[in-house]
Design goal:
heterodimer; A: mainly beta; two-stranded antiparallel sheet; 34% strand; B: alpha/beta; Peroxisomal Thiolase, Chain A, domain 1; 9-stranded mixed sheet
Chain lengths: 143, 392
């Protein structure tokens, strides 16, 4: 069956992120002037306002900041997944990203859980970055 | 410079009006806006031609200022604006009206919000981008959340609520106490959509929406319109109702209005912590001087979070504060005396402001909190919110 869940519409400012994800690379924008890292990938630095943005390969690691278990089919294509988790992951580089945990039972999800990125090729065009339990504890696991 | 003398008590609410609250109004959003606006204008003892400023705010369903101004027959207005935004702007839009008055531009400003929030465009499914039927493709910031099954506010706040539970020991029973208390208030309110009393057991038995939030933790999707008229202080004193002054107002939070992707980590300081001190300071009051609170309660958890971060109770103590009767009619700070967005209905927060005005007029009937002289009204969305301090 064709993939029927929502997909992104990349724009000039975030297309490099999606193109990298398709190549199974997790890149983040960083400021050449002050070193700040931010997400989503706005074109200008969210700290010093510089437009000198560069992309770098992220660690692909972070910790769960928070989570919710969705129990209602509000999002198209997700009816068969209910209940499913949505997590905020605090990346080692600082920014937070929304994602899903895969392979972790719902009752084992908790803030501070160390996680690492997994790349899921949902269509030929798009790869979503989800997370699984980290194989080795991250230095920032703060349970 | 905190501007305390520039805007304090320069404007007052002189008129309020609202349509009936329902699940299916059977009329257009413009008709709801117009009906509510006419009621508010007449409540102020004015004619439409007295109105020289018009404002609204909204996402999803909305009635445009140009259309409502034309329908009211206004030949010219001195200030008007359609604010693009949701709950965070309910009080901010009224504050903008106060600024238009304080600067001398306007004498009587109309603020309205109308939506067919149940029969038209359902907010909970659209707030993070995309259309009603759900987007196969999501533009904008939503492309970093919706593909993961993130639909909107109930999940955003579910996530925060879960974090609060883990951090402070708050329980779903605490959330339930908010729902039960506000439903008890709605029983006294003929306007409320939900008037049957509920128990904590009812709450605990209601279905999950986004854990840890249940159905009874969520507000009512509503078709309705609400409006207020804000008047210059010297033009407010000879009106049919006692004026309700805007003592201060604020809009802010942790950064500008945005998706909380990289802005929410400072969970210890939600929007009230950012704007509260200035808000109360400009009004010349402290939080303990507030008699009634019309807190933005799209979800039960929001009440607990605001009680803490405005300082009605200590950080992390919101759950026990509510369970101990702190927000009841006879409690330390009565909250949601109309039943709130949870039980009266959801007109994007503006209906809660109407209740605050009616309480300060002494006009709230069975719901009246005796001796109410000051009120706090709020709006909240993502990482920002707005608030007003009102006094009679």
């Amino acid at each position: 069956m064709a993939y029927d869940k929502p997909l992104p519409v990349p724009t000039r400012e975030d297309r490099p992120f999606w193109e990298a994800a398709r190549e199974h690379r997790f890149v983040l924008p960083r400021c050449r002037e002050c070193g700040h890292v931010w997400f989503p990938p706005y074109e200008s630095c969210q700290r010093c306002l510089s437009f000198e943005r560069e992309w770098f390969e992220a660690s692909e690691r972070g910790v769960v900041w928070g989570y919710t278990l969705m129990q209602q089919p509000y999002v198209p294509g997700y009816r068969d997944e209910l209940p499913y988790n949505v997590v905020l992951v605090e990346l080692e580089e600082g920014p937070m990203v929304y994602s899903n945990l895969v392979g972790v039972p719902d009752d084992e999800i908790r803030p501070g859980l160390a996680v690492e990125a997994v790349f899921e090729d949902v269509t030929e065009e798009f790869t979503l970055i989800r997370f699984r339990r980290a194989e080795e504890p991250s230095g920032r696991d703060r349970t | 410079m905190n501007g305390e003398d520039l805007a304090r008590d320069k404007a007052a609410v002189t008129g309020v009006g609202c349509t009936g609250f329902s699940r299916d109004s059977g009329v257009s959003v413009d008709a709801l806006a117009l009906q509510a606006s006419l009621l508010a204008i007449r409540d102020a003892g004015l004619e439409p031609s007295d109105i020289d400023g018009v404002l609204t705010y909204g996402v999803g369903d909305a009635a445009a200022v140009r259309d409502i101004s034309q329908a009211l027959g206004l030949e010219s207005v001195n200030w008007y604006c359609d604010v693009f935004g949701g709950g965070s702007y309910s009080c901010a839009t009224v504050a903008q009206a106060a600024m238009a008055i304080a600067t001398g531009l306007c004498r009587h400003v109309l603020v309205y919000r109308a939506l067919n929030g149940r029969s038209g465009r359902r907010l909970g499914r659209t707030a993070l981008g995309g259309g009603d039927a759900g987007p196969p493709r999501v533009p904008g910031p939503g492309q970093f959340s919706v593909p993961f099954g993130m639909s909107g506010p109930v999940q955003q706040y579910g996530l925060l609520a879960r974090r609060h539970m883990i951090e402070f020991g708050t329980t779903t029973e605490h959330f339930g106490q908010v729902a039960v208390t506000l439903r008890g208030n709605a029983v006294l309110n003929p306007r409320a959509i939900m008037r049957d009393p509920i128990t904590l057991e009812d709450h605990q038995a209601s279905r999950w929406i986004a854990e840890p939030l249940r159905l009874l933790d969520c507000c009512q999707e509503t078709d309705a319109g609400c409006a207020i008229v804000l008047s210059r202080a010297d033009a407010a004193r000879d009106r049919p109702h006692p004026p309700v002054y805007l003592s201060s107002f604020a809009l802010g939070g942790s950064g500008p209005a945005s998706q909380p992707l990289d802005k929410y980590p400072d969970f210890t300081r939600l929007f009230p912590a950012h704007i509260g001190p200035g808000l109360f300071g400009r009004a010349g009051l402290s939080v303990s001087d507030i008699d009634v609170a019309a807190l933005y309660d799209a979800f039960t958890f929001l009440v607990i979070a605001q009680l803490e971060d405005f300082g009605f109770c200590g950080k992390g103590e919101g759950g026990p504060f509510v369970a101990g009767g702190g927000i009841a009619r006879e409690g330390a700070i009565p909250v949601g005396t109309n039943g709130g967005l949870l039980s009266e209905g959801y007109v994007h927060g503006l209906n809660n402001l109407l209740e605050a005005v009616e309480q300060l007029r002494g006009n709230a009937g069975e719901r009246q909190i005796e001796g109410a002289e000051t009120a706090l009204a709020t709006g909240w969305g993502a990482n920002v919110g707005s608030a007003l301090v009102l006094r009679r």
